[in-house]
Amino acid sequence: MLKQFNASEAAGVCGLALLFFVSGSQAADLFKWELTSASCDSGNCGTGVYTPEKTFRDSYGGPKVTVSGWANTGTGDLFERGNVARWNGLGVKHAGESSGSPQHSTDNTGTGADAGYDVVLFESLGNKVSLDSIKLGWTESDADITVLAYTGSGDPTDSGDADYLGNTAYTTAGLAAHSWQHVGDYADVDDRSGKTVDISADTVSTYSSYWLVGAFIDLFTPHLSKDSVGRWFGVGNDKFKVYAAAGTIDKPSGGGNAVPEPSSLLLLTLGLPLIGRRAPSFLSSRSA
After folding, report:
1. What is the mean pLDDT of the chain?
2. 61: number of CA atoms within 13 Å, CB side?
């Protein structure tokens, strides 16, 4: 015998169904790249093994990411490609740099051949993404970071492309000329909860297939300045390994992969809270 629902019960059932729909829709728009051996897709991800690049799977089944290491060690501060290795996070060894500690990390320390500003290039192998948060693994003494997003239409990893990173100077003029947008500088990430920094306020409208996360460089924020809560930025003492990045995936407009969202009016009618369109980051319970 079929059960008949009254209006209140029907609204509750519909509400649960819609809540499941929205949650599933929202989860499908998230990504989390953990740079671990368990999520390694290609490239030798053994502990301490240097390779030009490594590819990792998304924890939620979304786009994979290829990571590579670079530093401004070329003539005129041009980026040069180095190698990356995995420990508790990813470190960069640029050309001529020692593989010992702390130069094996992503750093801005050292003199002579060890000197340089290391960056990790994240290349999304699928839809464009927006970084919401960055998590560090190993750190030593300090970990101030700089984040940039590529806003051009080229491929910075292609040596034949006009925006090839190897032809880009790590200067304000050089970055602007090759379509790199400064997202922000973030001090003392090593002292933050979970060694994680939430950058979503600076990336809410920025989607890109290419992101740079590197040791702090004082091109946009002065050396020995403070952020809004009193954290110091310092050059020459930042040493860390990038463990993970998380955020949201760009949904194609009008394409077959776009998932329609239930109307706000219907959610309110059913007594359900409106769920924000911005996905949660590492700092939320979603990624605990």
Report:
1. 83
2. 3
